[in-house]
Amino acid sequence: MLNFNSRFMEILEAKMSGESDQTFVNLLTNGGFKAFFGDEKNKSEVMEVINSLLPEHYKVIDIQYMPTEHQGQVVDENKTMHYDYMCRDISGAIFIVEMQQYKEKHWFKRCVSYACRSYDRQNHKGEKYDIPPVFLIGLMGVEIEHLDPQLWKERFVSEYTFREKSTNEVLADTIFVIFAELAKFKKEPEECLTKQDQMLYILKNSGTFTENYHPIWDDFNALEKILEKMKIAGFDEVKRMQYEKDMYDERRRNGEIAAAKEEGLEKGRMEKNLENAKNFKELGVAMDIISKATGLSFEEIEKL
What we know:
Layout: H1 4-19, H2 30-37, H3 43-53, E1 63-65, E2 85-89, E3 94-100, H4 107-121, E4 134-140, E5 157-160, E6 175-181, H5 195-205, H6 221-230, H7 237-282, H8 287-294, H9 298-302
Parallel strand pairs: 3-4, 4-6
Antiparallel strand pairs: 1-2, 2-3, 5-6
């Protein structure tokens, strides 16, 4: 049986050594996400990211960060998701950005629930219903299991809203749930011909870029400013310390999960071997054959 603590430390040290020379944050980590989206100095760059994923008819002009009580950790001790980032633009529309690293049962329903709660909370008087829209944007580190995968081979941004089924008519902007499938996005820089593709490339791969990274794109200025705000060396001392703490906490949590999974798999293999050995023994199979087939010692087999 694996020693949980020693295996956990091995996994944690491997993760820490692999990220020690990182130049830019990885937005699909808790620390990287908070360092970019949670810093109000990055307001212009955050708007660039949001606008690249919104429906064509809607663009953010200016945003105001929402109170911190509406934000929270990516995952708490009960695996309950909270708002990762939330802001409001000058029209009153609310924008929620979620980062999803793991597969989760009912995740789409959860996103709809979050967006609906934010939408309904704006209707203070309870009767006028002149409510600004809510946009929930998910940066997906896992692939979405679409009903027809063939329709989504070259599509990486999906948009769900209330629209009439036959005509696609949208009577009013209400709730939009938008996903950027970064896990599925595998284009090389030279294949990124649209602004949206270039943004998706930056969002997915920022953590792997070197100091002098500069793709061959005609207009890289806006994206270069976004990358600059992701550069770890540019953080002040307070932000750097918070980033390192967030990253350590996340690595520790991931290490514990990985070690627990390995221990669970090892336990499952052991139980299966014991079951097989017991069946072989009842069938009268020779001890040396049972031992070779299951990896159990003669002593362990005799105890069955």
